[in-house]
Fold this sequence. Notes:
Number of strands: 4
Radius of gyration: 25 Å
Order of helices and strands: HHHEEEEH
Amino acid sequence: MAPISFSVAECGRLEKRAGVQEYMKYWAYLVAKLALAGLFLYRVGRSLPVLLPPPKMRFYTGEPFGHDLVYTLIMFVYSLVAAGVVWLAIWDQRYRCRTCLRKLRMPILTGDWTHILLGRPRTEYICPFGHGTLKVDEVQITGHLAPDWQPHEDMWKELVSLDDTKK
Length: 167
């Protein structure tokens, strides 16, 4: 019977844990962006009554929303801005590398619009440091499909090694 090892490196947990930490960094960055967006929107929302105080209503003493046109329009514009800021934070996160959090670059259009069943049109983005590629379908025939993230071990080292073997 083999002895039980209490070393984390021998058990292989360290390698698995490092991958989880890199992946969780991606989601922690999204949470941080949403928290900053929430703080910004909270500050803007709190400053609206200072910049434009609600009007004094003669016959109604409650909330002017729905009774005063200017106040209602300002609150409507504020809600649209809030939805836009949250949407931009999520949209920006979608096109970031899952490892280094840099923006994905070099979009390549693949597939063919005339042969949708054989090769659907899609856009492929790549991390500038070779961490992976993101494939986004242009046509969603069977419903919403999540973008396909494919991590690479180290693509640039492989390319450099091919160049060194030619010399």
